[in-house]
Amino acid sequence: MSDLMEEPLRPKRKKVFVDYLVQFRWIVVIFLVLPVSFALYFMIYLGDVRSELKSFKRRQMEHDENVEKVVTRLRSRDPRKDGLLCTARKPYIAVSLRNADYKRARHFQVDLSSFRNILDIDREKMTAIIEPLVTMGQITRVTVPMNLSLAVVAEFDDLTVGGLINGYGIEGSSHIYGLFSDTVVSMKLVLADGLVVRATKDNEYSDLFYTVPWSQGTLGFLVSAEIKLIPVKEYMKLTYNPSRGTLQELAQAYADSFAPRDGDPAKIPDFVEGMIYSPIEGVMMTGVYASKEEAKMTGNVINNQGWWFKPWFYQHAQTALKRGEFIEYIPTRDYYHRHTRSIYWEGKLILPFSDQWWFRWGFGWLMPPKISLLKATQGDKIRNYYHDMHIIQDLLVPLHKVGDVLEFIHRETEVYPLWLCPHRLFVLPVNTMIKPEIGFEVHNRQGDTPYAQMFTDVGVYYAPGPVLRGEVFDGCQAAKNIEEWLIQNHGYQPQYAVSELTEKNFWRMFDGDLYERCRRKYGAIGNFMSVYYKCKKGKKTEKEVLEAEQAIAEVAELAELEDQ
Ligand SMILES: *[C@@H]1O[C@H](CO)[C@@H](O)[C@H](O)[C@H]1NC(C)=O
After folding, report:
1. Which residue ranges does UniProt annotate as crossing the membrane (predicted)?
2. 20 to 30 A from 189, CA-CA: which of 28, 298, 322, 493?
3. Ligand 1: nearest atom to the Cα of 145
């Protein structure tokens, strides 16, 4: 290990009251959160079934009526008196970890809760038209039995199409298709003044089309999206490949698992993810779709990972370190949602015994607790504790920097396991918020093509090593260091995370040029909170937001005057 990786010495930390609150939180989770979650999931499921019973035509009709209601509501608003726009969704419903403090500023609510239907599935065009509140679990339940799937299905059941487009979404097929928003064909949005527009890559609203991703809903209300479908088979043939070495060597093994050095497309798997379990051990998993006939052939192992009593997926994968390489066939839908029940590995922190066999067999079917309910029952004390003692960040970095970022994360946080998931970042005709490194194509690096640079999402979700050992740890400082590292290394931090970025640094990380122009052009300024303020940690007042907006508007006006 290089010196760079040496972790700093940290003194022991004294326990305080909130430590005990967190330690015994499982009582609330078991007796309150889990049963209520289960009931909520069941009600949502009934809602999905009810939606499925309606014909596509009927759903489309209701959609049109609901859009009309949104337009009417927007036209009834007086921007000077009524405050900024936001959805009527309760802040804790979102899966994102930052509490949506922005909703505390005075605002004018628009109810989008009825936009939860799949409007059409077109086998000819291979697209689906989906409303923003449709979840991943809902969509795969419909498409997988048809041998179809969204090109990118985020793993967690609860994630919504709207969140994945307005923010970011990724999964093990992103090394082919890019981020979730890259699979969108068209979007229907309602702008602040009530105008309904359809934006595509090449129509008059193409600038809007390209700026909605990462905008966090601050340009208009998304009311439906047409998304690319791909043909899939019933099973995923998954190879678990253990790997040992330094973090740099693990990063190389990970890159080799899905990006063949000779660039031969036949060697690129349909799916890929890497798990780093310690500074010297990892398991790389690659999957290809397989038919039922193939899976059922004698000698093949079928793993119905979706059953509630099954060992948690990341722990199951870890056994490859002992067993050596092995291959399994997992039903496609089970595979897509393999990390749901354990909330990746966060479940272990919330309910320390929930990975034990007796809990899984007895109560595994109650898992996972709804993140929204966990947030609603945590209170400010526990929430702040988590900000300090716990890391949930995704680091999007160029593939050639994965070794470096693993060493950096080790030194800063010692969080394990780490999740590795590659994704293409396409070269687009306009300046979007995130983009490949300038001149990346001349290096011809592993995984890159002239039209896209290969990136990797490094998921850092857990209590840091020092916290687990009872040592002093400064979560805010760690987050700041991570953010600065990302800015220096052309990396990005998805905005759902708790961010410590200042406004200036936020715009060092993201390119705000086209975004600001679209905000002006489509009347978002003074109507939707700007994305930095929406994501900023802590409470913000309406005055603060409006003053910032005013400043931006003035700068923009000056710029326009200078242009003339
Ligand atoms: C899905 O594909 C399998 C073959 O792998 C086929 O037997 C089945 O009928 C297909 N299902 C649908 C709904 O087309």
Report:
1. 20-47
2. 493
3. 13
- Closest Cα to atom 12, ligand 1: which residue? 146
Residue holding tokens 């039995």?
145
Q: Which pLDDT value is given to residue 1?
A: 46
Return the pLDDT at 100.
Answer: 55
Tokens of 419: 């999740």
Q: Could you tell me the distance, in angstroms and rounded to a whole number, from the CA of residue 126 to the centre of ligand 1?
A: 16
Q: Distance, CA 177 to ligand 1 centroid (Å)?
A: 24
The burial of 78, by beta-carbon neighbours within 10 Å (0-12 exposed, 13-18 middle, 19 or more buried), is given as exposed
CA atoms within 13 A on the CB side of 433: 26
| Distance between CA atoms of residues 74 and 8, nearest Å | 54
The alpha carbon of 306 and the centre of ligand 1 are apart by a number of angstroms equal to: 20
Q: How far is CA 194 from CA 43, 68, 76, 269, in A?
A: 32, 9, 10, 44
Please list every protein residue whose CB sits less than 6 Å from any atom of ligand 1. 146-147, 233-234, 291-292
**Angle made by CA atoms 165, 166, 170, in degrees to the nearest 5:** 45
Helix (H) / strand (E) element for 121: namely strand 118-122
- What domains can you pick out in the chain, each with its CATH number? 54-231+499-564 (3.30.465.10)
> Which ligand 1 atom is the nearest neighbour of the CA of 234?
5
Hey, is 457 helix, strand or coil?
Answer: strand
DSSP state of 300: -
460: three-class secondary structure by DSSP: strand
**Best residue among 123, 126, 148, 234 to mutate for probing ligand 1, ranked by most atoms within 8 Å of CB:** 234
Residue 33 CA to ligand 1 center (angstroms) comes to 39
Q: What is the pLDDT of residues 397-432, one digit of tens each?
A: 999 999 999 999 999 999 999 999 999 999 999 999
The torsion region of residue 135 among left (phi > 0), alpha (psi -120 to 50) and beta comes to: beta
129 membership: H or E segment, kind and range? strand 127-130
> Quick one: pLDDT at residue 155?
82
Q: How far is the CA of 173 from the centre of ligand 1 (A)?
A: 21
Instruction: Supply angle C-alpha 284, 285, 291, rounded to 5.
Output: 165
Check residue 378 and report its DSSP letter: T
Ligand 1 atom nearest the C-alpha of 147 is 1
CB 378 within 8 A of CB 385: no
Residue of the nearest CA to atom 10 in ligand 1?
147
